[in-house]
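Researcher: Please generate the 3D structure of the following complex. Treat every line as part of one assembly.
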Amino acid sequence: MAEQALRNVAVLGATGSIGASALDVIARHPDRYRASVLAAGRNVDALVALCVAHRPAHAVIADPALFAALRDGLAGAGLSTQPHAGDAPLDQLVASDACDTVVAAIVGAAGLSSTLAAARAGKRLLLANKESLVLAGELLTTAADAAGAEIIPIDSEHNAIFQCLRSRRAQADVRRIVLTASGGPFRGRTRAELTAVTREQAVAHPKWSMGPKISVDSATLMNKGLELIEAHHLFDVSRERLDVLVHPQSLVHSLVEFVDGSTLAQLGLPDMRTSLAVGLGWPDRIASGVGGLDLLAHPKLEFEAPDTDAFPCLRLAWHAMEAGGTAPAVLNAANEVAVSAFLQGEIGFLSIPALVEASLAALPATPADSLEALLAADAQARRVTEHNLAGHTP
Ligand code: NAD
Ligand code: MG
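Model: Done. Output below.
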């Protein structure tokens, strides 16, 4: 085999669930990949521990107040890893020679700035941070195309679609793209049965082990709504060619139907290391640590239509996608505020769709052709939702 150049990978959101999966795959291939930059939000101890294990050249903590703690932690561990703190230093590092590949796995709109920096700098972008695509999908894909940045979707559904298309462009020969959804922990329940569900129940996903925010999004089906908007931008497909199918086994990760009647699907065990290995190795296939799928051990593959009465977030996302402009930014920001309040025990589960719907109603879509306009809509939706929280109780 030809000698491979060592690729330097920045893992943003290194202390999270996707970050751990990415570092696991990288560590399996020391001859091909090195984690050169590790970035996290506030957990200094976890970040230092990852630096001890992976020896990156740079470590970044988002909160500037934690710089000294990071610096002292790295020095105390005898590491030569350079400490950094704050958003601007992270964006600079992402755009610099310190990395050629970026795993964008910060949760929420907080990940937009570094994701955009990677796209603008022409990096290979392994994109897990779906909220940045919902908030500013067109800007992000346009920036990536202009700079020659290769976006490889990491969200399992979009990674499946990418594999079926062997590209990020759905051509005219694609009739339909079907995103599969597990249905989350509350699949099959009526709206009335969701009134009193708890945080613990909501984050206990039946098939995937993920961070708390996306776990709640999976329970409300907002996750699938965000993924529709994500697919719309990633593959440049209109709403009419997108569909959602609930598939409780989470083994078929999505399907692409072509004009000739062929449907291609990607199957595999629900483990994000497969998507990350595709992102790191593409077009090569590399080992991920994930075993093969034994269909005799999983003989049942079931499919059903989503229930948008019990789970209105999916319907709200469809509407926001159709409305376009600032609507997806409002949807995403209102959802982030509502999910955070739910996780802190301030509101009940059904308040999440109610708050998102109220914010969408209060802030009708306007055209948004600049990052400033989108960020303003995001900020306004956060204010409106925070204000409306007062009227909701646990
Ligand atoms: P997580 O909560 O486990 O991890 C989030 C990471 O982001 C942590 O490392 C945290 O320190 C970091 N972070 C938070 N705020 C930050 C900030 N302001 N600046 C810098 N870093 C910050 O979340 P996760 O489950 O790993 O999900 C990460 C992203 O990947 C989300 O956008 C999610 O929707 C997407 N995603 C996750 C999965 C999954 O299986 N976990 C699947 C598909 C997509
Ligand atoms: Mg997904």
